[in-house]
Task: structure prediction
Amino acid sequence: MSAAVRLPGDPPGGRRAVAVWGIGVAVYFVAITFRTSLGVAGIDAAERFDINASALSTFSILQLLVYAGMQIPVGLLVDRLGTKKVLAMGVVLFTVGQLGFALSHSYASALASRALLGCGDAMTFISVLRLGSRWFPARRGPLVAQIAALFGMAGNLISTIVLARLLHGLGWTTAFGGSTVGGVLVLVLVLLFLKDHPEGYEPGPARHSGGSYVRKQIAAAWREPGTRLGMWVHFTTQFPAMVFLLLWGMPFLVESQGLSRAVAGELLTLVVLSNMAIGLTYGQIIARHHRARTPLALGTVGMTALLWGTVLAWPGGPAPMWLLVSLCLVLGGCGPASMIGFDFARPANPPERLGTASGIVNMGGFTASMVTLLAIGVLLDATGDNYRIAFASIFVLEALGVSQILRLRRRADRRERERVVASRVETVHVPA
Result:
């Protein structure tokens, strides 16, 4: 008699899973709030620390540099130590970083604080992905990941609406310092209630042999075409919206498009709301139609390039409001499209290697964001704040990413089909 039901080790999900996973999502929500808080404070930061565009972009570049550089180490830590320990460390680091940023009066101390925040932030999303894979059935993976990202974008919403008002009403120190209460609250929840996996679904014993383990984990994950394809999908899709929300959206809309801060803030909020709606849609589509992954990713890149090109090439000055609204709606699809990268890496790697593979994927978008943030800042200073030239750097990275996606997609698809067939054969021969 063959085992035709749930695959071995596939967790059942249920209310308990939602409650535990929800704690991890709450941590990610707070991390995103802290990460994107500079997006509404860029002009204030330039005045507070008396810095130019290049120096201002260094805040986000350093934060993302630390974040991207930590992805593989964090993936290894999650695979080795489990979710609870890594999430707790992350909360402590990003909360201390946010508090340090609130109290900073010098550019150097503010930079150090953002670096610390980036280090803690780096420990959250991979941990949440791992938590979801341990508590929910594999078939729910795409939807669970998109919902986690949706709640993360809700943290961005807090930045663009609540924190922006607190900043201009209560001042820098009170607004940023007060936000650290959220970090303290989620730390308590993690320490008291979070569990790495349901009872009876403990992962098998892992063999850890120092540097050899690290090299083998990274090499094995990288050899999978699905991991590399996932990284390039994440690279190509995420950064246009990340750059816009993290730092340059507000200055672009105010200084280049002539909008008030209030209207610019509403457009940033529109990006977040669009992201949340599209995320649910993409998650449902991919859960039902796995082959839609590549078309959705490439379609999002194409629409993003088209709208950015139209806005930047608009003759006679600022673009009309309907076009800016369209741009913001399309930018909302970048985050959900970047999540598709994890849907390529997930079936390509066994559970004990998923953290490492997710770290490789997550490096993609944040590396592209870091490069673009730097390019825009340098080009603005070099051209006398010519936003058209500065934002044209987006197209260079999109072209690079699309070329790699087209190169790897067939190889990854063929390898994934082979793994599915092998899994079915193995399941058929498992005795009841």
The chain has 17 helices and no strands. The radius of gyration is 21 Å. Residues 1-8, 427-432 have pLDDT under 50 and may be disordered. Residues 393-428 form the longest helix (36 residues).
